[in-house]
Amino acid sequence: MRIALDAMGGDFAPDSIVQGAILASHDLPEDAEIVLIGQEDVVRECLQKHGATSSRISIVPASQVIQMGEHPTKALTQKPDSSISKGYQLLKLKQIDAFCSAGNTGAMLVGAMFSVKAVEGVFRPASAGFVPKLDGGTGIFLDVGANAECKPEVLDQFGKLGSIYAQYVLGISNPKVGLMNLGEEEGKGTVTLQAAHQLLKNNPSLNFIGNIEGRDLFNDKADVIICDGFIGNVILKLSESIYDILLSKNIVDPYFDKFNYEAVGGSPILGINGNAIIGHGVSSPTATCNMLHLAYKMAKSGITEQIQKEFST
Amino acid sequence: MRIALDAMGGDFAPDSIVQGAILASHDLPEDAEIVLIGQEDVVRECLQKHGATSSRISIVPASQVIQMGEHPTKALTQKPDSSISKGYQLLKLKQIDAFCSAGNTGAMLVGAMFSVKAVEGVFRPASAGFVPKLDGGTGIFLDVGANAECKPEVLDQFGKLGSIYAQYVLGISNPKVGLMNLGEEEGKGTVTLQAAHQLLKNNPSLNFIGNIEGRDLFNDKADVIICDGFIGNVILKLSESIYDILLSKNIVDPYFDKFNYEAVGGSPILGINGNAIIGHGVSSPTATCNMLHLAYKMAKSGITEQIQKEFST
Questions:
Q1: What is the pLDDT confidence band of residue B187, given thresholds at 50, 70 and 90?
Q2: Is B163 exposed, middle or buried (0-12, 13-18, 19+ CB in 10 A)?
Q3: ipTM of the complex
Q4: Residue-range domains of chain B with CATH
Q5: Do B237 and A255 touch (CB under 8 A)?
Q6: What is the distance of C-alpha B62 from the center of its chain?
Q7: What is the pLDDT of residues B19-46, one digit of tens each?
Q8: How far off is chain B from A149, nearest CA to CA, in Å?
């Protein structure tokens, strides 16, 4: 199992990223290898600096770096030997089983569409976020930013993508799917949401439980929460800020600890032909380590193959 | 100053509502009178039951009741002597200075448009929510549910409505206006938000500071946060649920106490020819009391007259 990591991506790359890889090299399951993609000298020096000795970490050279603020499409075209381009090339060739980057989010999304491409039948791949449930479980919500606006049929597919993830990665059987809305009644919300509600309701492959509201994000009403990338992004960042506020007030609680972005590691892109994860720009060593664990779990579960299978029928 | 309250509206009406009126009768400023609108016998009995003696509370009879689940337009047409219809009639005739109800939200919004109507020049009145700021102040965000979808020019006007409220009721001079988006850069978000950004940027009457993100809701970047009613509603309910979760875990903190819906009292409808506030369906006596205080503050500030003035020029 080869998990690749963009050593050059993130506000604190390569230091934090390489440190995260070293952390993960100590506790990832035995069959996992970590592939660091980046400028060879820089990465090697960084590994030495942090005392890496593990034979589980290897380097794939990539001479170019896509910066955080660059225009995604332009950067990918102009930098074919960047760590992000290289990662997706390897993913496409199946030389790696997963690719993670805390770098330029846009380039990660566009890169996926250019290289491994969307799974046949998937209208729009989605980036997913996770929500700690009060009952101790984990919920998934999607999209969290890849698609600011979504048509009803796209939202309907998010239900399926999220359900497959919930089943195969989170281990939830018959996951409950809820549509984020401003009221529980069927006729609530925008025209798009009303149409999405009907599609979801009549989708035989889903356990659709209806609309949910902002107050239901953390309770056990739904395991899979469907929303457009705009609302998902606001929810994600708002939840992260709650954790920061609690921390600043020295309020420590095991439940709210799960709001820490570091605990999750990153956002999987679902509905593409490969396992890819986008990490937080500020990714710390701990966050990076957890991103690698998440990638391992995804690759091991066969989630991508399952999505390919379920969308082909 | 006559503040009217729908005695029949809310999940726990008339009991909680009447108790809230009694609470407020003890601590509202001297020039405030409370007008309870509802079925006279029921309200009188309820006042007696709770030992009301204040001469500051009077009753205006309304024989009908609009239930929480009723269709707003139909209910208002079929029940002209309902407490909500009556409240707006009195508001229109300027026999009261403010009208509050924890009843049917849709009927409160439609009722406003039927009776006192939108201020000339205002495209869409907005319902507003409040956010406790980490620096100790209060921010206002709008819309929180009256308009699920908003055109750019409507979002631009929300900036003005919110700024006037921030100045005249919250006492913030030159309030900073932020547009809720999924990134700080000007070109981020949906086509609607990109257009709204340009309108706001070029609006000379506003102190527009640009896009803000979900993580900025509670910090001091913006005093006025513009969003459509869909996202505002999700944010409002999500924030309320955070308070409930903290409470369930016995985590008490003065900052998070402000997340309690009871502390705020309700959502003002801004941009109509009168002061109207929609309370939470579950309004307790404390929430009802605080809704009356909020109504008093709004009426005293002359916010409606200020909105009329600023939109007429």
A1: confident
A2: buried
A3: 0.92
A4: 1-122+271-313 (3.40.718.10), 123-260 (3.40.718.10)
A5: no
A6: 23
A7: 999 999 999 999 999 999 999 999 999 9
A8: 7
